[in-house]
Write a sequence for this structure.
C-alpha cells in the first residue's frame, strides 16, 4: 500500500519494456512522473479553491458552495468553464508580448518545483542532490513574472501594486532562506529526500519542529511562505479594499485563471516543503507514506486558509518592518543556536537553546515599537 | 578624468509629479456611491476632496409637498440602517412643533427601539471597518448574525425589517405583539457573550492595532469647531452625548455612562463604539424592567392615525435632535398651518462628519484613507438625502 | 501577553466557529453562537411574521363582486408616492356606485409603507405577504389592476389571523348594531302606525 504508486509506475515500465528501444526507457519514466504531476497540480489547485471557499464559509457560520454537484464538488468545473468563456481583454497600450507571457511565466515555476517534493517513500520525481536550492531558486523567478504582469499592463495602479508585490516577495525571501539554513546544517544535505530521512526514527519525535530552533524556524518559514504566496494577511498586492486589484487588474478570463492557479499551486508547494523540512515529510507510523505527506500538507493549507478567514491585512510599510526588523534578526540568531545545538550534548542544550530564543523574541518585540500595540485607557463620563 | 553620470544625462527627468486619483463612485468598500478626489505623492496623501451627491433623492423637496405623516416612510430611507432613530427624530420635531405629549408606554417602546437600532448600527460598522481592513467578511458575518435577530424583532413589531415606519406623532403606530418583550430579553441576554467573543477576535489583534492606532487622529478642538458629533467626537475626548445634554424623551430615567476616548484615532472610534454597545445593553435592561402597560398614542393624536391628511400643526418652527448612532440627527420644520410643511431641513450627521475627512487624511498613506473613511461611519442615504 | 497572542486568540474564535458549525444547526427561535445559519432556500424558508407588510391587496367578503372598497379615494390621497389610481364606477343612468371601476396600483412606485391600510375607513385594503412576484419582462406583473388585487377574506385570515379576527368582530358588531337600529326603527314606525291607526279609528262610544 505504501509503494502503490511506485509499483504502478514499475508495472507500466515493465509492460512497455519489450516494445521500446533502450534509450527511450528513462524518457518514459520521466514522462510518467510528469503526467502524474501534471494531473496532480491543476486538480489540486481546483479543489483547493473549493476547499478554501467551504472552510472560510464554515468559519463564518455558513455553508460554502453546495449547489453545483453534491457538496459543491463540481464547482471548480463551473468556475473553469466560466473563466474559459470570458472575453480576453488586452488593453490597447499594453505591451503585447510581456502582457501575454506573464501568466505563462508565473505558472512555470509553480509547476517546476513539484519535481523536488518528496510525496512519499521513493516518490520524489527527480531526486536532485541540491533539491532545496533548486526549489528556492526556481520559486524566486515568480517575482520577475509578477513584475512583467504589472509592467505590461500599462496601468499606473497595476505598476504600483506590482512594485509593492515585488518588494514584498524579495524582502520575504531573505528570512525564508535563512530559516532553512539550520535544517541544512543539522541534516547535512540539500536533498529533500535526505532531509526527510534525517528526521526518521522514534516514531515522530525526531522531527525538526520539536527542537527549539526548529520550532521557530518552522514558524518563520511558514510566515514567509504565506507572504511568498501573496496570501492573507500579506495579500497587499491583490487587496481589493484599496483602489487597485494589484498586478492582475488588466487580466481576464483564462489568464486570470492562470494567476489564480499559480497562487494556489505555490501555496501547495510551500506547504509541502514546510512539511518536508520541519514536520518529517512522509514519516509516520501506521498509514502509507504518501497519505502522511498529504495530511501534513493539507493541515498547513488549512492553517493558511484559517489565516485568510481571520486576519486583516498589513500595510506595506508594516509588512516590510516585520520582515526586516523582526524576522531577519531572529533567523540569524536561530542559525547560531542551531550551530550550538549541533555541537552540544545533553539536556542542557535544550534549556540553553530555548532560553536564547525566547530572549531574542522578547527583545525584538521590545525593540520594534512600531509593530506592537499600545495600551489604551478609556474613561467614562456620567 | 572620470566622468560622473547623472540621471539627467541619461535623458530621464526626475521632477516627480503628483498623482491625482479618483477613489471612484463604484467603491470597493461598501459605503455606497461616494467619490474622493485624492492627490498623491507616491503613497502619501496631499489633499483629499470628497464629492457627494450621487444618491441625492430630493428628500427635502418631497417632504415639503407631503403630509407630515406621509414623510415618515421617507425619513426611514435617510439613514437606511437606523430607521427607528430617524423616525424618532421626526416624531420629536413635530411633537415639539405642535406641543403633543407622548404616553409612558410609547416612550419606553421608543427608547427600546432606538437602543436596539444603536446596537445594530455599531455592530455593523465595526464589521464594515474590518472589511475595509481586509479581514474577508468574517467579522461582518458574525455581526450580521446579531443584527438578524434584531431585524426579526423589528419585522414582528413594525412590519418591515429596515424601513420600519413605526413611530407616529404622539406615540407609536401599534402596540407590540404578544411575546415581543420576552424575545427582546432573550436577544439582549445573548449579546454580552457575543461582544466578548467579538472583542476576543478583534480588540487585541496586533494587525488591527498596527493598522488603526495613530491613524487619522482628530484633535478635540478641531472636532468641536467642525461640528462633528457622535462617536467620532467622543473618541476625541469631548464629553457630549445628546442623550445626556438634552435629556430628551425619557433618557434621564436610565443610568448609563458615556465612554470617551483619548486620542481620536481610528482605534479609539472603534473601541468607543464597542463600549457604547455595552451601555446600550444597560439601558435596554432597565427599560425592559420598567415598561408600564398603557396606551400607545396620545389621545389628541389618535384620530389622526386614520386620517393623516387632516393633521394641521400650528404655525411656527421647531428643531429637534436625537443622538442617532452616527451623530446628531436633527430635523428643522417650519409650518404655516397647512397640512404640508413650508420648509423642511435635515441635519444629517454623516454629511457634517465628512467635512473633516481631508484634515484627518493629509499625511497618511492611501491605504489609511479607506480605513479612516470606514471609521467616520457614513451612510450615503444620509449624506445625500 | 506575548507579541502575537492577540492574533492567536482571534484565530481560536474562528476555529471554534468552524468546529461548532458542523454540530449546531440553526434553530428557528434563537441562533446559538456558532450555529450554522444558512437556510437552503427555496427548500427551507423563514417563518412568516404576522405583521410583515409587502404590497397591498383588496378584500372581498364572499364573491369578488362583494368587495369592501367603496372608491372613496382616501388611500390614493394618503399614499406618499401616489401609486394608487382609482376611478369610480357609474351605472347605466350615470349615477355613481359605491364600487371602483378601475383600481390600479403601480408596484414599481409602491414603497410598502402601509399608510393606505391605516387610512382606509372601510377595512378594504391590507398589506399582503407575497414577495415572490417577479415578472419575466418589463410589462408583466408591475402594474396591478383590480382583478389581480382582489383576494378573499379567508386569505386575510390565513396570513394575519389576529388582525382578521379583530376586524371581523368589529364588522359583525357594526352589522348587528345596524340591524338592531333598523329593527328598532321599524318597531317604532310600526308602533307609530299602530297608534295613528287607533287614533284614526273613531272611539267606540256607547
Amino acid at each position: 500500500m505504501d509503494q502503490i504508486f511506485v509499483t504502478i509506475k514499475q508495472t507500466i515500465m515493465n509492460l512497455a519494456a519489450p516494445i521500446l528501444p533502450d534509450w527511450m526507457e528513462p524518457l518514459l519514466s520521466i514522462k510518467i512522473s510528469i503526467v502524474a504531476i501534471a494531473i496532480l497540480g491543476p486538480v489540486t489547485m481546483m479543489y483547493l479553491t473549493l476547499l478554501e471557499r467551504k472552510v472560510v464559509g464554515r468559519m463564518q457560520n455558513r455553508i460554502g458552495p453546495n449547489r453545483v454537484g453534491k457538496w459543491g464538488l463540481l464547482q471548480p468545473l463551473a468556475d473553469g468553464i466560466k473563466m474559459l468563456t470570458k472575453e480576453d481583454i488586452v488593453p490597447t497600450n499594453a505591451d503585447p508580448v510581456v502582457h501575454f507571457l506573464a501568466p505563462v511565466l508565473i505558472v512555470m515555476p509553480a509547476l517546476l518545483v513539484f519535481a523536488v517534493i518528496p510525496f512519499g517513500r521513493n516518490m520524489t520525481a527527480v531526486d536532485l542532490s541540491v533539491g532545496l536550492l533548486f526549489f528556492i531558486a526556481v520559486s524566486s523567478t515568480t517575482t520577475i513574472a509578477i513584475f512583467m504582469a504589472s509592467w505590461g499592463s500599462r496601468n499606473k495602479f497595476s505598476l504600483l501594486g506590482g512594485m509593492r508585490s515585488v518588494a514584498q516577495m524579495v524582502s520575504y525571501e531573505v528570512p525564508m532562506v535563512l530559516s532553512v539554513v539550520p535544517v541544512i546544517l543539522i541534516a547535512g544535505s540539500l536533498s529533500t529526500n535526505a532531509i526527510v530521512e534525517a528526521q526518521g526514527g522514534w516514531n515522530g519525535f525526531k522531527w525538526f519542529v520539536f527542537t527549539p530552533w526548529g520550532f521557530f524556524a518552522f514558524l518563520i518559514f511558514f510566515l514567509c511562505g504565506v507572504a511568498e504566496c501573496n496570501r492573507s494577511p500579506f495579500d497587499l498586492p491583490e487587496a481589493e479594499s484599496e483602489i487597485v486589484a494589484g498586478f492582475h487588474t488588466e487580466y481576464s478570463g483564462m489568464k486570470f485563471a492562470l494567476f489564480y492557479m499559480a497562487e494556489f499551486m505555490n501555496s501547495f508547494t510551500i506547504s509541502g516543503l514546510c512539511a518536508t523540512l520541519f514536520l518529517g515529510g512522509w514519516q509516520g507510523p501506521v498509514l502509507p507514506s504518501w497519505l502522511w505527506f498529504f495530511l501534513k500538507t493539507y493541515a498547513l493549507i488549512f492553517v493558511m486558509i484559517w489565516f485568510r478567514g481571520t486576519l486583516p491585512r498589513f500595510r506595506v510599510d508594516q509588512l516590510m518592518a516585520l520582515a526586516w526588523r523582526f524576522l531577519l534578526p531572529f533567523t540569524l540568531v536561530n542559525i547560531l543556536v542551531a550551530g550550538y545545538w549541533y555541537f552540544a550534548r545533553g539536556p542542557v542544550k535544550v534549556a540553553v537553546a530555548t532560553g536564547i530564543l525566547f530572549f531574542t523574541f522578547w527583545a525584538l518585540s521590545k525593540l520594534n515599537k512600531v509593530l506592537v500595540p499600545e495600551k489604551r485607557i478609556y474613561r467614562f463620563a456620567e | 578624468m572620470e566622468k560622473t553620470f547623472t540621471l539627467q544625462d541619461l535623458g530621464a527627468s526626475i521632477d516627480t509629479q503628483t498623482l491625482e486619483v479618483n477613489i471612484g463612485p463604484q467603491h470597493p468598500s461598501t459605503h455606497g456611491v461616494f467619490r474622493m478626489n485624492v492627490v498623491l505623492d507616491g503613497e502619501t496623501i496631499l489633499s483629499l476632496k470628497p464629492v457627494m451627491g450621487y444618491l441625492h433623492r430630493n428628500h427635502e423637496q418631497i417632504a415639503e409637498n407631503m403630509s407630515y405623516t406621509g414623510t415618515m416612510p421617507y425619513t426611514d430611507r435617510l439613514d437606511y440602517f437606523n430607521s427607528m432613530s430617524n423616525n424618532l427624530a421626526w416624531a420629536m420635531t413635530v411633537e415639539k412643533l405642535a406641543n403633543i405629549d407622548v404616553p409612558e408606554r410609547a416612550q419606553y417602546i421608543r427608547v427600546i427601539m432606538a437602543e436596539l437600532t444603536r446596537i445594530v448600527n455599531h455592530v455593523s460598522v465595526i464589521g464594515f471597518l474590518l472589511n475595509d481592513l481586509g479581514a474577508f467578511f468574517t467579522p461582518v458575518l458574525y455581526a450580521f448574525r446579531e443584527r438578524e435577530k434584531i431585524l426579526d424583532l423589528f419585522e414582528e413589531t413594525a412590519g418591515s425589517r429596515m424601513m420600519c415606519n413605526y413611530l407616529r406623532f404622539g406615540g407609536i403606530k401599534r402596540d407590540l405583539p404578544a411575546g415581543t418583550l420576552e424575545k427582546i430579553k432573550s436577544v439582549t441576554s445573548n449579546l454580552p457573550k457575543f461582544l466578548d467573543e467579538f472583542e476576543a477576535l478583534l480588540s487585541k489583534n496586533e494587525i488591527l492595532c498596527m493598522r488603526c492606532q495613530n491613524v487619522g487622529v482628530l484633535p478635540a478642538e478641531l472636532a468641536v469647531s467642525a461640528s462633528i458629533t457622535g462617536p467620532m467626537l467622543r473618541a476625541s475626548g469631548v464629553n457630549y452625548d445628546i442623550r445626556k445634554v438634552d435629556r430628551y424623551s425619557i433618557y434621564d430615567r436610565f443610568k448609563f455612562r458615556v465612554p470617551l476616548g483619548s486620542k481620536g484615532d481610528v482605534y479609539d472610534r472603534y473601541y468607543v463604539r464597542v463600549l457604547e454597545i455595552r451601555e446600550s445593553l444597560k439601558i435596554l435592561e432597565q427599560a425592559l424592567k420598567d415598561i408600564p402597560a398603557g396606551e400607545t398614542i396620545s389621545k389628541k393624536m389618535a384620530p389622526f392615525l386614520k386620517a393623516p391628511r387632516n393633521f394641521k400643526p400650528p404655525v411656527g418652527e421647531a428643531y429637534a435632535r436625537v443622538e442617532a448612532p452616527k451623530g446628531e440627527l436633527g430635523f428643522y420644520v417650519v409650518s404655516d398651518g397647512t397640512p404640508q410643511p413650508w420648509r423642511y431641513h435635515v441635519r444629517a450627521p454623516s454629511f457634517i462628519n465628512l467635512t473633516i475627512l481631508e484634515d484627518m487624511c493629509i499625511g497618511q498613506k492611501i491605504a489609511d484613507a479607506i480605513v479612516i473613511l470606514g471609521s467616520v461611519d457614513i451612510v450615503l442615504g444620509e449624506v445625500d438625502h | 501577553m506575548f507579541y502575537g497572542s492577540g492574533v492567536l486568540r482571534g484565530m481560536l474564535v474562528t476555529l471554534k466557529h468552524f468546529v461548532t458549525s458542523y454540530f449546531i444547526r440553526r434553530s428557528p427561535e434563537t441562533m446559538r453562537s456558532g450555529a450554522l445559519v444558512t437556510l437552503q432556500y427555496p427548500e427551507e424558508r423563514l417563518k412568516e411574521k404576522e405583521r410583515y407588510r409587502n404590497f397591498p391587496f383588496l378584500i372581498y367578503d364572499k364573491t369578488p363582486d362583494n368587495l369592501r372598497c367603496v372608491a372613496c379615494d382616501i388611500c390614493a390621497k394618503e399614499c406618499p408616492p401616489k401609486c394608487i389610481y382609482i376611478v369610480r364606477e357609474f351605472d347605466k343612468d350615470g349615477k355613481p356606485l359605491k364600487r371602483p371601476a378601475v383600481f390600479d396600483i403601480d408596484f414599481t412606485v409602491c414603497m410598502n409603507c402601509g399608510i393606505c391600510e391605516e387610512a382606509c375607513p372601510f377595512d378594504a385594503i391590507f398589506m399582503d405577504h407575497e414577495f415572490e412576484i417577479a415578472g419575466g419582462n418589463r410589462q408583466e406583473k408591475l402594474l396591478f389592476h383590480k382583478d389581480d388585487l382582489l383576494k378573499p377574506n379567508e386569505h386575510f385570515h390565513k396570513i394575519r389571523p389576529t388582525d382578521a379576527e379583530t376586524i371581523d368582530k368589529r364588522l359583525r358588531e357594526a352589522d348587528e348594531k345596524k340591524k338592531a337600529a333598523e329593527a328598532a326603527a321599524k318597531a317604532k314606525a310600526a308602533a307609530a302606525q299602530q297608534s295613528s291607526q287607533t287614533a284614526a279609528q273613531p272611539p267606540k262610544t256607547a
Notes: Chain B touches chain A through 48 residues (CB under 8 Å). Confidence is low (pLDDT under 50) at residues 1-7 of chain B. The radius of gyration of chain B is 23 Å. The first strand of chain B starts at residue 19 and ends at 23.
